[in-house]
From TrEMBL, chain A:
Species annotation: Klenkia soli
Name of the molecule in the record: NitT/TauT family transport system permease protein
Membrane topology: Multi-pass membrane protein
Annotated spans, Disordered: 1-20
PANTHER family: ABC TRANSPORTER PERMEASE PROTEIN, ALKANE SULFONATE ABC TRANSPORTER-RELATED, MEMBRANE SUBUNIT
Tree of life domain: Bacteria
Residues annotated as transmembrane: 46-68, 104-123, 135-158, 164-185, 214-241, 261-286
Cited InterPro entries: MetI-like (IPR000515), MetI-like_sf (IPR035906)
UniProtKB keywords: Cell membrane, Membrane, Transmembrane, Transmembrane helix, Transport
Family: Belongs to the binding-protein-dependent transport system permease family.
A GO-annotated cellular component: plasma membrane
Domain ABC transmembrane type-1: 100-286
Pfam families linked: BPD_transp_1
Any single biological process term in GO: transmembrane transport
UniProtKB/TrEMBL annotation, chain B:
Domain ABC transporter: 18-239
Organism (species): Klenkia soli
Protein name per the record: NitT/TauT family transport system ATP-binding protein
SUPFAM superfamilies: P-loop containing nucleoside triphosphate hydrolases
CDD domains membership: ABC_NrtD_SsuB_transporters (cd03293)
PROSITE patterns: ABC_TRANSPORTER_1, ABC_TRANSPORTER_2
One example GO MF annotation: ATP hydrolysis activity
Length: 301, 257
């Protein structure tokens, strides 16, 4: 009994601190400020990003025009020149848009392959401790070996074109899918397992009706991480494997070596937007697939 | 493994569905959970086990269900199908009520139409009509338990095992579910092994109450409950009920010390 008293007092103090205008007594007095606070939160959550964005653009202009001498402004071209000298310049966009398309193709091909291999790999490991013990170290190795060190080798074996770029994507995107799928399958509720055991469910039935559905939230979280990584993979792959039509990575390196500031920055923005788009796309897919029943994704809405 | 037709007539009342002879269970770490347990349950019997926490009640059910094995003695189950209701409803969160209730029939390889019909019937029986499309997260604790019960009912089991199924529910919901379970028991005539912490629930539900001692658990007392099958909530306030509940409580305390 005595233990509850100080707690109640503490609660009261907190209430007073948070809303000084409110009488600090009855619990019934709290709903009003709660509602108000939430509305204010909503407003700030839309307004704040805009303010921050405007501030960044302001700083950017300041750097361009206040700190850089006119001859060095290609180092950080003013924001509007990205539009005038790149977005509205057909010479530039005729390079950027097709490159964007190719980068998308490479990263989605890589991601698709990583998803198939990664899930099969994880499922195989989930079915037997021996398989897990023998295959998991390689998944970790994939994560630990610097992919860049293997890049020359990939070039020798698969030539310096599309295939090699896709392989880089696969290698970068594979680990999160393997580890998340395995984690998802292994964290299935013990009670659910016993239910299936009790009714003599076979391996495949258990996998299809219990383990995979239960793992879906984790699997989709893995997809989302890997999707972002495979865009990175496509850019990195570009930098090393320049045979064939250029992707965004090659453009980045070309524009930068020719000191074309505005096109370079424009391409960086396009790359970033692609990364964002992929991330959000997979967030949306996850929500469609498991949002109905999986609690965590409710916060997003 | 071969699934008997769901229409097969249930075995008659009085058939032995569960027999434990001198069952013991020692875990690899040396814990002795059960010792010298003798127990017989027939169809039409509702046997409740009360005992202190950790005395091996869940272990008893797990052995009866085949999830665990006796380390000594024999446990014989003679039931076409076993229903097992866990303390948690263990519904699959991605399946609707209807689909959850269909799960076990699916696992037993019933045809799609038979599965569907069995689920509809069971949902009707537990009073969840109109909630078929809901996901578990939209259900109250009591409704989840009803769905879990319905899921086992689709198999029309001869032996029903309950591991403190209503332990997490509020008293009103619990008492209502007690009445509904009695109604199902009277209608279906299965044999039941029911575990609870509540002496009142034990006496109200059962045809026989067994009292277990603290670990290593064994059965120290057995009470026949003389109230017949037509039980109403008022029974709880009769002197006869209070007397029997008092005796069971006393035995429980004796076994505990
Ligand atoms: N796999 C196991 N290995 C070792 N000890 C175990 C194992 N399972 C259960 N036990 C022990 O056996 C004893 C009986 O466990 P059990 O779960 O059957 O108790 P219970 O009567 O159901 O308890 P409660 O009323 O708390 O549910 C406990 O002391 C428990 O710690
Ligand atoms: Mg237990």
């Amino acid at each position: 009994m005595t233990a509850t008293l100080p707690t109640a007092e503490e609660t009261r103090v907190t209430t007073t601190l948070e809303s000084p205008t409110q009488a600090p007594v009855a619990a019934g007095a709290t709903p009003a400020p709660l509602v108000r606070r939430r509305r204010r939160n909503k407003l700030t959550s839309y307004l704040l990003p805009v303010v921050v964005f405007a501030a960044l653009i302001g700083v950017w202009y300041a750097i361009t025009y206040l700190f850089l001498e006119p001859g060095k402004r290609f180092l950080m071209p003013a924001p509007h020149t990205l539009i005038t000298d790149a977005l509205l310049d057909p010479v530039i966009t005729d390079k950027v848009w097709p490159a964007l398309g190719r980068t998308i193709v490479v990263s989605f091909a890589g991601l698709g392959i990583a998803i198939v291999i990664g899930m099969l790999w994880a499922i195989a490991m989930s079915q037997s401790k021996a398989v897990e013990a023998s295959l998991y170290p390689y998944a970790v190795a994939l994560q630990c070996i610097p992919i860049l060190a293997l890049v020359p080798l990939i070039g020798f074996w698969f030539d310096f074109g599309f295939e090699s770029r896709v392989i880089v994507c696969v290698m970068i995107a594979l680990f999160p899918i393997v580890s998340n799928t395995l984690f998802g399958i292994q964290s299935v509720d013990r009670g659910h397992h016993e239910l299936f055991t009790l009714h003599r469910a076979g391996r495949i039935t258990r996998l299809v009706k219990l383990q995979l559905p239960a793992a879906l939230p984790a699997i989709f979280a893995g997809f989302r991480i890997s999707a972002g990584l495979s865009v990175v993979g496509a850019i990195v792959g570009d930098l090393f494997f320049k045979k064939g039509d250029p992707g965004l990575g090659i453009l980045l390196s070309n524009f930068s070596s020719r000191l074309q500031g505005a096109p370079l920055f424009f391409t960086i923005v396009v790359t970033a937007v692609l990364g964002f788009a992929v991330f959000f796309l997979f967030g949306l897919l996850a929500k469609l697939a498991v949002g109905r029943w999986y609690d965590q994704s409710r916060d997003a809405g | 493994m071969s699934a008997p037709a769901p229409t097969a007539p249930p075995a008659a009342t009085g058939t032995t569905v569960l027999q434990f002879t001198d069952v013991a269970r020692q875990f690899p770490d040396g814990t002795v959970a059960l010792e010298g347990v003798d127990l017989t349950i027939q169809r039409g019997e509702f046997v409740t086990v009360v005992g202190p926490s950790g005395c091996g009640k869940s272990t008893l059910l797990r052995i009866a269900s085949g999830l665990d094995e006796a380390s000594a003695g024999t446990a014989t189950v003679d039931a076409r199908r076993i229903g097992y209701v866990f303390q948690d409803a263990t519904l699959l969160p991605w399946r609707s009520v209807q689909k959850n209730v269909e799960l076990l029939a699916e696992l037993h390889g019933m045809s799609k139409t038979a599965t569907n019909q069995a689920a509809l019937d069971a949902i009707e029986l537990v009073g969840l009509r109109g909630h078929e499309k809901k996901l578990p997260r939209a259900l109250s604790g009591g409704m989840k338990m009803r769905a879990s019960l319905a899921r086992s009912l689709t198999l029309d089991p001869d032996l029903f095992l309950f591991d403190e199924p209503f332990g997490a529910l509020d008293e009103i919901t619990r008492e209502r579910l007690n009445d509904e379970l009695i109604r199902l028991f009277v209608a279906k005539g299965f044999g039941a092994l029911f575990i609870t912490h509540s002496v009142s629930e034990a006496v109200y539900m059962s045809t026989r109450v067994l009292v277990m001692s603290g670990r290593p658990g064994h059965i120290v007392d057995s009470f026949e409950v003389p109230f017949g099958t037509d039980r109403t909530p008022e029974l709880r306030f009769t002197p006869e009920f209070a007397k029997l509940a008092g005796e069971v409580s006393h035995a429980l305390r004796e076994g505990h010390s």
